Amino acid sequence: MEEEHHFTNVPYNYPLCLNRQCPKASTCLRQLVEQEVPDSAEYWVVISPKYQAKLKGACPHYRSSQKVQYAKGCMNILDNLPHKQRQLAIIHLMEYFSRRTYYRIRKGERLLSPAEQRDVQKILKQCGATGKQEFDAYVEDYEW
To answer: Which Pfam families does the record cross-reference, listed alphabetically (predicted)?
Structure first.
């Protein structure tokens, strides 16, 4: 049975793919979203077919249709660190993400991708945290 997709949170101006002959078309978000664009859509952003024709090997625009686990909020992590480690971790996280983005991540307003979660874990380890730290919550979504 073929999986049915309903893409409701496609980022604005998300580049779509028109290459239905691509060997990865059945699992590529760009191709699957293109197939679901309503007839009423007047304009869309597409990856140039001329550019794609020149590609040899793996497409740099491929995006898997498998959902990934995003982390939401890191208050639990910070609250469980000793004061000095917490202060150091906050400084490093602000340097890595920017002050504004750090506060949005901390409160769960901005989700962390799997790669960003690994980077946060590395920063925490450098600040003396031991073991894997759990974020406040996790949500599954597409990695646009």
So the answer is: DUF6078
Please check whether residue 140 is in contact with residue 67, taking contact to mean a CB–CB distance below 8 angstroms. yes
Element (H, E) at 82: none
Q: Which two tokens stand for residue 23?
A: 């060997």
The pTM assigned to this predicted structure is: 0.80
Tens of pLDDT, residue by residue over 75-92, are 999 999 999 999 999 999
According to DSSP, residue 89 is labeled H
Contact indicator for 137, 108 with CB cutoff of 8 Å: yes
10-14, 77-81, 108-112: which has the highest mean pLDDT? Answer: 108-112
φ, ψ of residue 12 to 5 degrees: the values are -55, 135
Domain boundary assignment for the chain: 1-66, 68-141
Give strand pairing partners of 139: 70
